[in-house]
Amino acid sequence: MRYDDQNIFAKILRDEIPSTRVYEDADTLCFMDIFPRADGHCLVIPKTACRNLLDASGDQLASVMATTQKVANAAMAALGADGVTVQQFNEAPGGQEVFHLHFHILPRWEGVSLRPPGQPGDMAQIAEIAGKLRKVLD
Question: Quick one: pLDDT at residue 1?
């Protein structure tokens, strides 16, 4: 399968589509999910092209996983989460919807279920949570 440079995450990387950015380094970007299944739900992507885990280079995976760990720890601290769920999907039958490698970080609290997928979040609340995450990450 070929990488489609018109996917939504590639457009976010090029600033063609707005996003609420949380963390960025030379190799990765973390931004808030606009359909959050949990408060603080964010996504980590490499800045270079790859469809998913199946075609990612070792360097891409190492960079994305380091950022995923960093942001997951920040979410625990900033949001007082009890745990964190990290999800990653590969190809359509595996649940992947956007064909640019990405990891979901979902802060979790005891007794609080994930919200159903596909429900738009409150953008003011998403921005507020992003601010809390950025304070811990700075």
Answer: 83
**Residue length of the chain:** 138
Q: Which residues contact 26 (CB under 8 A, 6 or more apart)?
A: 47
Condensed to tens digits (0 to 9), the pLDDT of residues 34-66 reads 999 999 999 999 999 999 999 999 999 999 999
Q: Is 14 helix (H, G, I), strand (E, B) or coil?
A: coil
Cα distance between residue 53 and residue 122, in whole Å? 30
Rounded-to-integer distance, Cα 85 and Cα 107, Å: 6
The helix (run of H) or strand (run of E) holding residue 77 is helix 58-79
94: tokens are 């595996």
Catalytic positions are 102
Tokens of 97: 């919807």
Radius of gyration, alpha carbons of the chain? 14
DSSP 108-136: E-TT-PPPPTTPPP-HHHHHHHHHHHHHH
CB 51 within 8 A of CB 14: no
Q: What are phi and psi of 79, to 5 degrees?
A: -110, 0
